[in-house]
Amino acid sequence: MMVLVDTSVWSLALRRKQTDLSPAEQDLKTALQELVQDGRAQIVGPVRQELLSGIRAEDSFRKVRDALRAFDEPQVRVQDYEEAARINNACRARGIAGSAIDFLICAVAYLRGWELFTTDPDFARYRKVLPLRLYHD
Fold first, then answer.
1. Residue 52's closest CA among 11, 102, 108?
2. What is the pLDDT of residues 61-102, one digit of tens each?
3. 135: burial class by Cβ within 10 Å (0-12, 13-18, 19+)?
4. In this structure, are residues 111 and 123 in contact, taking their beta carbons and an 8 Å threshold?
């Protein structure tokens, strides 16, 4: 099964120094490496943009950009945006707020039957409305 990797996990692997990672974060990085080796790790444009945003040093930006270029992206379709809006509306109706990008990530994973690999606790809240499958190593 394919796994859509969220910004939080890519950031651990590509933007943080290995020596700065806790043992749990190192385990997450290892899990991502295994997904990449198995050809199961997926990324979408909004995650790519979030990950590259805020990198001040041009050489660091190029390094992360070039690492991500190895990954093809699934095409984000009209249905993905429509589902993201539906999820947003359903969550808001239950008092759960979130970002447009988070809901688009949810929609892409949900509509394709993929798991989502994230450390962001907001996605656990979205699961109260959407049967989103979270990846656990």
1. 11
2. 999 999 999 999 999 999 999 999 999 999 999 999 999 999
3. buried
4. no
pLDDT the model gives residue 136 = 80
Which two three-digit tokens encode residue 83?
Answer: 């589902």
All domains in the chain, ordered by first residue: 1-137 (3.40.50.1010)
The reported pLDDT for the residue numbered 17 is 84
State the Cα–Cα distance between residues 58 and 131, nearest whole angstrom: 39
